[in-house]
Design goal:
Chain lengths: ~425, ~260
């Protein structure tokens, strides 16, 4: 371990050279910044990971059942498990997807589940990301560089090799491919995760394309290769959001999408990874209901734990929110990336009054959670080990079977007083080691 | 029962050549309890290929691409439709139509208007909706050009004016505030001019059409094209193309009694 820390600067330099950056838009300006890597890994023991693996597989299986159900039979709403407004008022619910069955029953092929570990060792799910979760490429490339910088570290320890992510991803794409090539559709060079798009395309032997490279002809999707040859596309791992995917079915003003791609998908002539419409399942309001989904669809008790969550929509929860306002965190269900998160005790008196008025006016828009005192993980700062808050994004791939990648993205907050670890808020990342015994 | 002959003509002129022109036209009248399509003829030019699809609300459309360069694009859709005798559509009422969308979400103006409504204490959903329609017509004036397809009902209520789209979304807003499922309908009505919009409210196990622009129930003069939660769900024609051109689009609609 000591050796890796010594090499941290060299590894960061390599990461910069490989273009491991992410872009941020702030005040209308695009800035690219390095994603700082900290060499001290998060280590998860074999037994502990086995428990997480079981829980995550169950959770993602239930979420896939929900997605299939909600756009077709809607049994879970009819049976009164989830109030209809939580589904239909969600910005992630997309009416164009009504009646569409995702090929082979898989809507969330790549799921990014965010977890934290509390001080007592218990793991809590913070949120499910089922649209286009990013981040797997960072620990993937970092591991390769670490192995090169300090081979003995990996020789001496029983660390599961995580460099199989590309094969897992490739298998996931091949499973739903309906005939033709796999492509990765990126919004382009100025997207926050462009490094990841290009890196994964290279590793999975997929073609990296932008919207204008793809076209629909007679209900099939094609791209033109370097030789001017028209090639059919069988699966699109798209890294653009639903709303921008197809100006003919979603936002008409989108210029980064592919006209008619959604119609081709509905006719079964191309697979889209992840399926459009998944936003209805990773809505912060729906999160509350995931343990109920597990019970409803699988008849099992939910293995993973949600952070204690309250919906102001329910009167008893509203009362709790009003009583314990200084001890809870409020999240706007429509926001992501660490935006719209408010800690009750950090507000001034006036801000608090405004927030309470807003919650009373729009109870469906917010969830409240107890603040989990999650464990600190050490990072190196100016040659010193200092503790920081960190979470874990686990990647669950669903193809023929459900697989949890034996690694994950550990993000940490560089600000000692902050609980928010999102890279868009200035955080850094670590490798995640899963031990084989 | 009446038999109606309709014609929808769209002509787009571009001042420079455009290509990779993708289009989607939601202009296929559906067969329902209150209208039967007797004949339908679609002529789009130029085109590389066309196909047909259906959206999540069940609305049919034609779509396709004109890949080669062109400066004129025309769509000509005509047909005959038998309307009546039924005035309402059956089919399932859906919880989707209970819920406000960004375009129908009530703001202060809608809240005030709803509050000031002297709604009958009893009566079915239709009676209440007709009451709301009357109140709405006392507030809104018909003024073209002050709103567009992204305008909300609240914006129209605030400026107290709009076109059929705004009258319709405002009625949908009020109905949903009252707990009545309501949906937005785009279609055509006997006469010459443009496409039209009206609302359908769920009452007594059926969808009944109310036209707040004209303040009447939908009768045999109306041909429905599609429905959705709001105006944005019912964009009748969509298109994208490559090329730096200015587009001049003319749409004419005519519906005649046969």
């Amino acid at each position: 371990m000591h050796d890796i820390c010594k090499e941290a600067d060299a590894i960061n330099e390599q990461l910069a050279r490989y273009g491991v950056k992410f872009g941020i838009y702030k005040n209308g300006e695009f800035r690219e910044q390095l994603f700082p890597f900290d060499a001290i890994p998060r280590v998860i023991g074999a037994e502990e990971f086995e428990y997480l693996e079981k829980g995550l597989k169950q959770r993602v299986t239930a979420l896939n059942c929900f997605l299939q159900d909600i756009y077709t039979d809607k049994r879970i709403v009819k049976d009164g498990i989830i109030p209809p407004e939580f589904v239909y008022a969600s910005s992630g619910y997309l009416p164009p997807c009504e009646g569409v069955r995702a090929p082979k029953g898989v809507a969330s092929h790549i799921s990014g589940i965010d977890l934290v570990q509390a001080k007592d060792g218990a793991w809590y799910i913070l949120e499910d990301n089922l649209r286009v979760p990013s981040g797997a490429s960072y620990p993937l490339i970092a591991r390769g560089l670490c192995r090169r910088a300090s081979p003995e570290t990996f020789r001496e320890r029983k660390i599961v090799d995580n460099r199989d992510y590309a094969q897992l991803l490739r298998r996931t794409m091949d499973h739903v491919n309906v005939g033709g090539d796999n492509v990765i559709l990126t919004p382009g060079r100025y997207n926050a995760a462009f490094f990841e798009h290009s890196y994964l395309a290279e590793l999975t032997d997929s073609v990296l394309v932008t919207g204008s490279d793809l076209f629909v002809e007679n209900d099939f999707l094609y791209y033109t290769d370097m030789g001017g040859q028209k090639c059919r596309v069988g699966a699109v791992y798209r890294r653009i959001s639903d709303e921008y995917l197809d100006p003919m079915s979603f936002l008409p003003e989108s210029v980064i999408g592919v006209p008619h791609i959604f119609d081709v998908y509905k006719k079964g002539n191309v697979a889209i990874i992840n399926a459009p419409g998944n936003g209805v399942a990773d809505d912060k309001g729906i999160y509350y209901f995931v343990p109920k989904m597990v019970k409803y669809y699988l008849g099992e008790e939910c293995i993973t734990h949600n952070a204690p969550t309250y919906l102001p929509y329910y009167p008893e929860d509203m009362k709790y929110v009003l009583d314990k306002f200084d001890e809870i965190v409020i999240k706007d269900v429509a926001e992501a990336g660490g935006y719209g998160v408010v800690f009750g005790n950090k507000l001034t008196k006036a801000q608090k009054a405004d927030m309470l008025a807003l919650i009373k006016a729009q109870p469906r828009r917010f969830i409240a959670q107890d603040v989990i005192d999650f464990i600190d993980i050490d990072i190196m700062e100016n040659g010193e080990r200092v503790p920081r808050k960190a979470d874990l994004r686990a990647f669950v791939l669903t193809g023929e079977d459900v697989t949890v990648w034996k690694s994950g993205l550990t993000r940490f907050s560089r600000d000692p007083d902050s609980f928010i670890v999102n890279s868009s808020q200035g955080g850094g990342f670590k490798d995640t080691w899963v031990l084989s015994r | 029962m009446s038999e109606l002959a309709f014609e929808y003509r769209m002509r787009s002129e571009f001042d420079r050549e455009i290509f990779a022109h993708a289009f989607r036209l939601m202009l296929l009248p559906p067969d329902t309890e209150r209208q039967k399509v007797l004949s339908l003829d679609v002529d789009i030019s130029p085109k590389s290929w066309v196909s047909q699809g259906r959206d999540g609300f069940g609305n049919g459309y034609v779509y396709g691409t004109a890949a080669e360069g062109h400066r004129t694009f025309t769509a000509h859709i005509r047909g005959r439709v038998l309307t009546g005798p039924g005035e309402a559509e059956r089919g399932a009422g859906s919880e989707i139509y209970f819920i406000q969308t960004p375009a129908t979400a009530p703001g202060p103006c809608a809240v005030r208007l709803y509050h000031d409504l002297d709604l009958p204490r009893t009566g079915d959903a239709l009676t209440r909706a007709e009451h709301m329609m009357a109140a709405l017509r006392r507030v809104l004036r018909y003024v073209p050009g002050v709103t567009d397809t992204t305008s909300s009902s609240e914006a129209a209520l605030k400026q107290r004016s709009g076109v059929c789209q705004d009258f319709t979304q405002a009625l949908v807003t009020l109905c949903r505030m009252d707990g009545i499922p309501a949906r937005y309908v785009a279609g055509m009505v006997v006469g010459e001019g443009q496409t039209h919009a009206w609302a359908e409210v769920w009452s007594g196990g059926r969808w009944v059409g109310l036209d707040p622009t004209w303040g009447r129930r939908v009768n045999g003069d109306y041909i429905k094209l599609c429905h959705g939660r709001d105006c944005r769900d019912c964009l009748l024609n969509r298109g994208t193309y490559a090329g730096r051109a200015c587009e001049n689009q003319i749409i004419t609609v005519s519906v005649k009694k046969v």
